[in-house]
Known about the structure:
By secondary structure, this protein is mainly beta. The protein contains two helices and 26 strands. The protein has a single domain (3-340), classed as Neuraminidase. 4% of the residues lie in helices and 42% in strands. The strands form six sheets. An eight-stranded mixed sheet has the order 2-3-4-5-1-26-25-24, with no helix packed on it. Strands 6, 7, 10, 11 and 12 form a five-stranded antiparallel sheet that branches. A hairpin with a 5-residue loop joins strand 24 and strand 25 (315-321).
Amino acid sequence: MAVERQVLLRFAAAGPAPDTVSDLSAVCRDGDVLWVAGDELPVLYRLTAARDGSSYADARSYRLGEFVGLPDGPDDEVDVEGLDRGADCLWLIGSHSRTRKRVDPGDDDAKVAKVLATVRTHPNRNVLVRVPLADDGGLPAPSAGSSAALLDGDLLAALASDEHLGPFLAIPGKDNGLDVEGLVAVDGGLLLGLRGPVLRGWAVVLEIDPRSDSAGKLRLGGPGPGYRKFFLDLDGLGVRDLCRDGDDVLVLAGPTMDLDGPVRLHRWTGAARVRDRTVAWPDDLERLADLPYGRGEDEGTDHAEGLTLLPDGRTVLVVYDSPSPARQTHSGGVLADVIGLPATAAISAPPFRPAARGLVLTPDRGVL
């Protein structure tokens, strides 16, 4: 097991949200600050590191509706699944997923069939949010400045005619439909990791370059459809989060369906800077660690959904949705894992090897 230790995240003083915040889906370290978001409330949390590094506390919470006009109003969930620090802002993205209604244990056969036919859309999930940062007593804090901006539904519109992803837009995320669950700021734009769909075992990552229009609204930039696709052979798993590590991107991989595991951490070499190939085979993706997930009495819990690099550069912090009871404290906190990264050997080969195995690679339409 790669878990070196655990860190307490204490939310007890988080303000307008409930005292206990446990379902965590996105995390980003920013100096001494930890930005965290969950998949239930449209709220961003700021925690500050203790001097000994054993915990993050002094929680502050910020409602996303204070900074941008959310399409379904400020109170409906955004289902934030990706979060990263840009040069002078925070980027947050909703899952862009549809949902299928849950079956209750007491439902009869007819009710089960009716419930499973009910699919819902959630406009607040279909957003990318840019929130500017300002100084707050020496710490960064979200600001309702003029550069706060929203991309509302444009990604779904662009993907509607995509030959790979278009057929999956009407399918709920947990049924292998479209589900954005990772975001990382890289040279040239943002990479978005898709939990689903997984295409015959291949995961998909999108590159976008959001830009402000004359009205201050975010739009997909670049030629063509405004995005670029990458295909990663993660052995049937989808992307749960992305995190930059120098010139590389760390990929947290897990099941696309409603399953517990397996969960693995990979290194996508050179992807933060060099993305001249659109396919990453298994030997382009160094497998770093296998992560814990709910088993036995804890089945259905401990879904790893967010990671961020820690200051030592050799460990990452991983946060969990549906945490097991052992992760939750009586003082309104939740335990995150610190995962050790193995030393990476010097790499002399290019980040993506030339086309092989009879495969001919051509650039995607709309390369940014």
